[in-house]
Fold this protein.
Amino acid sequence: MDFVLALHSHLPYVLNHGRWPHGSDWICEAAVDTYLPLIDSLQALADEEIAAPVTVGITPILANQLASPVFESELRQFFEQRLGACDEAEAEMRNTPDAHLIPVVGYWRDRLERLLSLHESLNGNILSAFRDLEENGRLELITSAATHGFLPLLARDESIRFQLAVGRDEHERLFGRRAAGLWMPECAYRPAGPWQPLPSARAYRHRDGLETFLMEGGVRFVFVDAHLAKAGRPLGVYGELPTSPHELVQARQPREPRTPHSPYRPYWIGEHGRRLAPRALIRDPRSSMQVWSRHGGYPGDGAYLEFHKIRHPGGLKMWRVTSPTAGLGAKLAYEPELASSQVLRHATHFAKLLGRVGATVRMQGGELIVAPFDTELFGHWWFEGVDFVEELYRQIDLQGEVRPLTASSHLDNARSDDALHLTAGSWGKDGDWSMWLNPETAWTWEKLWPLEEEFWSLAPEGIGRPELHSVLAQAARELLLAQSSDWQFIITTGEAADYAEARISLHIADCAKLMHGLRGGDGDLESAQRLAGELAVRDAVFPNILDSLKACLSA
């Protein structure tokens, strides 16, 4: 029985758009909590000659940020701030009731210094570490849409092609090879059929399903949630799972689909013909629940670091979950050794769970278990999560019940030759598109759709006139940045809604100003060229965007 662990790494573009509480600190926290620890763990497993063939997705917009000198500067300041916070916390806690937390401060100082040393050993190049691991056969890198645009709700087919083309081209530029796989943003899919998500949207009697555009882009495989393949019920995003024991039991009971499909084999998508269409790898509901849920899964264990209790100023987390019902004031001091013992226990348990699932589904013709997660779940949301992944591969190697492989390695020898039709949906709450299209976010789409229409009406002429290229290129960047699915998601969750509303409004307005220059006279063009130059510094992404645009226009 094969086991494919897929980690999807993504953050919206935040460089030059604030620092704290919303802005570059997001990507710095992800680097320190998740990306650097993951590199450290994968290198440790390589040194031990233990196979850990994880499939890692890095979205093009995240990769562009990780490669930016602005990020390098921000991360160095972040390390300095956190190490300074350790010194300040230790001095302030002496001879106070919080003195028992001083050992936790020491733990953080040691960890931060070790990660800073790792970062310096990489010459500040996180992407190169992932690239080297892939070149050495230790993992597989896959791509995504350029800015994680919510593809089912984009109004123009050209916009879908453009998101995918920039994603493909940027991955090849940054990692030196074309990715075989693609992570559909939010695991969201739209089948062929009529399209009019809101009365204000342009109505289409028929639009091609997303698999058509994936096939055009040479995508070999994608990941989908089980309910899209009628293979189970939606799990939702981390932290949105049931909170009561009764609800948790109910959630573990899969809905009976009309035409059930096993999640334990790959499928060709749609009717384009085998060998041409992409293949769907389906999330296993049984094993994913154990990791995905912070209520009934491993992340909620009392020994693990409490995410929500933070010492201010400084941002240090020094307490443990303690119990599911403990209020923030009742949290006990974090004990790294206790947490490590639980990591070993949970990794051992999960490896055995994979073995049991594999033994059961093997008799039913199954051939693989797919476990896709947001990378940032490990390390950032669940602090010990990266250690769990590292120990999991050790336990898999020790127990020998499943065979870990990258997605492509499994597909090279897959036995299944079945095809299916996916249903519309996502891996978001309720399994549909409602996290991105709802009364709170409808206005964003009503602004984005006319912007798309105007851009694609101007692009053909603009691409043929060199004097318009700088403005057209930046208008394309601003359109892509406005299309990021993160803005609607953040607005819906409400935790940083003001920031998300301001960001999407900013990119829409800047794109509109640039397009005004494209269609206006010489004076308008000169003004737009100056604006494009300023925005090219602020939003310095996708340097070869016009090449991708030309390819889309000629398709």
